[in-house]
């Protein structure tokens, strides 16, 4: 990345234009940060040293590139950080689903189209808009596609503060939004970082079903339901299965309880609308999907990430936590001899749970 921009350019005006163009492209907000992440680098290293990343080896794989943007993309001077709201209007109330033990809870961000490609395309269009105005400049767009400390950069760009649950919170829009970044060599003026407003509140810590938030601002991913249902590829620790309830892909409890989400904004992107009634589908129904059906129905969705084996594993746990009924037991027995040892193990656990209820 090499800067070709003339030093006489009005970068303040350009920064203002960039934020306006970002909103025109469908982003809810945009801000600009520098590349200094020294404190965050120390925080990340402590987290890794404590083993809180579990099997997410990619979190440690890239050394300091994650916390030093210019090492990841040489020549980077600024990071344009953007956010996009993701809960569309009309989505079934999350608490209603969680409190229905026969329903399957899917994290609200994963109900519709996978955001990665959509946001990356929008960031590319933003870069093209900048190019059309000033000519050649260095940039690289990222949306969970590289080692990037996106929450720290978003905070430094003024998009929100990192809450005690480690999620970015915006005073005007809560926390239900995606983040993306445009690394650039343009010496744009930076925005003031967001100040923190959690105060003495600890609702997110107290409500976590598996007590994964081990201290304010410290998440042990090995206990987090999002990690267990998405990142973990083996067996879910038995002591964490009952607390998972009916959460089969991700978990939103720490966000649902956050007072700031009373300001959450509806998504403007129609592609985020729930597909296949996944905002409240029944566990038994989803457990009945064949692998072909799973692959077809989750095409272009984040849910595909768990894989079919993980999908059945997670649903088996949900069914083990569901009320005992003939329908539930029949569904589980149909998978008792599944070819996957992981699936068989979790189905056996679920059936044993129901055997004690008969």
Automatic annotation (TrEMBL):
Q: Which residues bind [4Fe-4S] cluster 2?
A: 208, 224, 251, 254
Q: Which Gene3D superfamilies match?
A: 3.30.70.20
Q: What HAMAP family does the entry give?
A: QueG
For this chain's record, the cofactor binding note is: Binds 2 [4Fe-4S] clusters per monomer.
What highest taxon heads this organism's lineage?
A: Bacteria
The keyword DNA-binding is assigned to this record: no
- One of the record's GO molecular function terms: epoxyqueuosine reductase activity
Pathway membership: tRNA modification; tRNA-queuosine biosynthesis
Main localisation, per the record?
cytoplasm
Q: What cofactors does this protein use?
A: cob(II)alamin; [4Fe-4S] cluster
| Residues that bind [4Fe-4S] cluster 1 | 198, 201, 204, 258
NCBIfam families per the UniProt record, alphabetical: tRNA epoxyqueuosine(34) reductase QueG
* Entry binding sites for cob(II)alamin: 66, 144, 168, 179, 226, 251-252
EC number in record: 1.17.99.6
Alphabetical list of Pfam families matching this protein = Fer4_16 (PF13484), QueG_DUF1730 (PF08331)
Catalyses:
epoxyqueuosine(34) in tRNA + AH2 = queuosine(34) in tRNA + A + H2O
Q: Which organism is it from?
A: Dyella koreensis
Recorded family membership: Belongs to the QueG family.
Task: Give the protein's recorded name.
Answer: Epoxyqueuosine reductase
List the subcellular locations: Cytoplasm
User: What subunit structure does UniProt give?
Assistant: Monomer.
> What sort of enzyme, by top EC class, is this?
oxidoreductase
Q: Which residues form the 4Fe-4S ferredoxin-type domain?
A: 186-218
Keyword line: 4Fe-4S, Cobalamin, Cobalt, Cytoplasm, Iron, Iron-sulfur, Metal-binding, Oxidoreductase, Queuosine biosynthesis, tRNA processing
Q: Quote the catalytic residue positions.
A: 144 (proton donor)
